[in-house]
Design brief:
By secondary structure, this protein is an alpha+beta fold. The protein has 3 helices and 6 strands; from the N terminus they run βββαββαβα.
Amino acid sequence: MPSFASCFPSRSTSDPLDSFDPLVSSSATVKGCVFCGASREKGFGIVHADDELIAFHDRTPRATVHLLIIPRRHVVSSVRELRNEHLTLLNSMRSLALTLVSSPSKMGFHVPPFSSVPHLHLHVFSGKHTFIGRFKYPISRREKGEKGLGWFVTLDQVEKIIQNGGTVNLGRG
């Protein structure tokens, strides 16, 4: 079983991932990442898997339905690294979420350092949130639905920030 620290990326200068393009590679994984290679055999409650995405139940659900959708390949470690070239991936993640959960109440990402696993993962919720879930996944909005100060950002907010040439951070979008 990997240690807790193994889910954080290594700063090694000899990292084999430094020289490849994860948008092209079909086997992009990061050694020690708990989401890379997610499978039922590894204890994941997988509800969908295809060549691009994997969806599974969160191990500590914070709502009646709490799914995580991840890219099969380790494309980026967090929402902060997303750029225009990732909009197609985000659209695929949204489409899958809407296929799996007919009317999600919330879809979004934690902003580092408040994300627990450095592998891009979309939280999809439906139904009532737990007490802790209400505080762990707050949506902070400004006018016109723009991101406010906060550690959780909705999929819509991420897309808008990226389309406007920005990057996601803890501050306002």
